[in-house]
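Sample pair:
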Amino acid sequence: MNTKLYREYGTSMAGLRALGYDFDHDDYHSFVHGRLPYEYLKPDPVLRSLLHSLPIRKVIFSNANEAHVAEVLHRLGLEDCFDDVICFESLNPTNQIDNPSAPNGSVIGYDNNGELPESPIVCKPFENAFHQAFKMAKINPHKTLFFDDSIRNIQTSKLTGLTTVLVGSSQRKTGVDYALESIHNIREALPELWESVSKKLDVGFSQKIAIETPAEA
């Protein structure tokens, strides 16, 4: 069930809310993320150095809640590497979101048309989440690089006009502009980012480039 909801809705929480479950979002995040083995995350000085060497705006766009994003950044030693964070609370500002179209009580199943109901939760990989994030962060998608390790997020983001970078695979797929086996390879794969800053040349990106990067564990 968890796998299906994650696949259909982007997050299990979004799927549960679509199916009629009603719960406190803070309690849910506390329970789920509070049991993650954060101790396995270690400082990443290489990534920290790369991010600090790139003097352009960098924004995190994550489906996770603010506390989880902060904990991951702290463990990786990247707290001061980003200019803004768009997270669960940003896209879903109220703790409990009314969903009048959802059935009452804990009901699991398809609607009368054989389709899963819509979720009141705003999250990747759906386009409305990207457009909402663009407005909040004042980002022009046509002048922005988007990094993610989810091919679904990458393919949706491409539809919004973003230049896409798939992290964790060297295989380019539909919707992928760049593919990096490791985020540490960013400078080798995209040297023009550093060149555009040092030489002040137009290399196909905006003079103000925003790098979007997920913060997931």
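The mean pLDDT is 86.
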